[in-house]
UniProtKB/TrEMBL annotation:
Annotated keywords: Membrane, Transmembrane, Transmembrane helix
The name this protein goes by in its record: Endoplasmic reticulum-Golgi intermediate compartment protein
Source species taxonomy: Eukaryota, Sar, Alveolata, Ciliophora, Intramacronucleata
Organism: Halteria grandinella
InterPro entries from the UniProt entry: Erv (IPR045888), Erv_C (IPR012936), Erv_N (IPR039542)
Domain of life: Eukaryota
Endoplasmic reticulum vesicle transporter N-terminal domain location: 7-95
Residues covered by the Endoplasmic reticulum vesicle transporter C-terminal domain: 113-316
């Protein structure tokens, strides 16, 4: 029974006495080992590499009727006490008391924060407010709006302006004060801030489109009497928020919105306004990290090893027979 079972061996061995090492075989073996090592290292690197694939689909997920807008906007020459942020949408919502966490930060002309207060905090006494604005102007203070607020998941707009304090501005302008609505957008994004941080850490090769980050606009000036006065400025931004889903290799899923924008600035406006009109795209972009399966990796390694040894054997056999044939021909001519 043992002898019958041994006959099934398809990997039969030759005695060492019947094999002979050759210089040509050594060269082929060395080249085979080098190529095999390079290909195996390449395959290991491919197995360890996480790839990101993208796809575009129609957005049918409406599990969340609210979304966050994160802003960080600096008005270096505008007093905080005369700035307000309003939100409107197509559902008729007009919100001044914005839900979220948004703050006004009084800053010096060098950018240092003097104090901060919630956007919801307002000075009711107009005379006190007038005196506070005068103090801010005399100290050359500006304002930074930073934080997030919530909106309905429908088209609309939000804008920063001073129209709620028109009486204060008119009184101060009659006294010779002027206001400069120059601004810089440090950051503006749609979605939860913590999701952005996770995506930036786990998808380093995939940049998120926040095209307004770092955008700045200076107010035009005109001559009034013996001094230059900043003109009113109406800046309109038209944003399209594209829902974007990111799924990492572990299966965790994160949702944010990427932005595309167009803008227009009117320097002959009646009042200074920074307006953001937004729409939500019906198309969603999905990014998914993929990694090669371990069993596929083993199959590729086996294919590399088997293929290299097979080809090396064929090459060695061809070279050996060619050299043997050439050697025999020379011996025949000499004889």
């Amino acid at each position: 029974m043992k002898q019958s079972f041994v006959r099934l061996d398809i990997f039969r061995k030759l005695p060492k006495d019947l094999t002979e090492p050759t210089f040509c075989g050594a060269l082929v073996s060395f080249a085979c080992t080098v190529i095999l090592a390079i290909l195996c290292m390449t395959e290991v690197g491919r197995y360890l590499t996480i790839q990101t694939k993208s796809d575009m689909l129609v957005d049918i997920s409406h599990h969340d009727d609210r979304l966050n807008i994160n802003i960080d906007i600096v008005f270096p020459k505008m007093p905080c006490d005369v700035l307000s942020l309003d939100v409107q949408d197509v559902m008729g919502t007009h919100s001044v008391d914005i839900s979220g966490s948004l703050f006004k930060k009084k800053i010096t002309k060098t950018g240092e924060v003097v104090s901060q207060a919630s956007m919801l905090e307002q000075v009711q006494n107009r005379m006190d407010l007038l005196n506070r604005v005068k103090e801010e102007i005399s100290q050359e203070q500006g304002c930074q709006l930073k934080g997030y607020f919530e909106i309905n998941r429908v088209p609309g707009n939000f804008h920063v302006s001073s129209h709620a304090y028109s009486d204060i501005l008119m009184a101060l302008m009659m006294e010779g004060y002027s206001f400069d609505f120059s601004y810089k957008i440090n950051h503006l994004s749609f979605g939860r801030d913590e999701q952005f941080k996770i995506i930036q850490r786990r998808f380093p090769d995939q940049g998120i489109m926040n095209p307004l980050d770092g955008f700045s606009q200076l107010a035009a000036s005109e001559q009034q009497g013996d001094k230059q006065v900043a003109k009113n400025m109406n800046s309109n931004f038209y944003l399209i928020a594209v829902p974007s889903y990111f799924t990492d290799a572990g299966g965790s899923r994160y949702q944010v919105y990427q932005l595309t924008q167009n803008s227009f600035t009117d320097y002959n406006a009646q009042q200074s306004v920074l307006m953001f009109n937004y729409e939500l795209s019906p198309i969603t972009v999905q990014y998914q990290q993929t990694k090669e399966n371990f069993f596929e990796f083993i199959v590729y390694i086996c294919a590399i090893v088997g293929g290299i040894f097979t080809v090396a054997g064929i090459v060695d056999s061809i070279i050996h027979r060619s050299v043997s044939s050439l050697f025999k021909q020379r011996i025949g001519k000499l004889s």
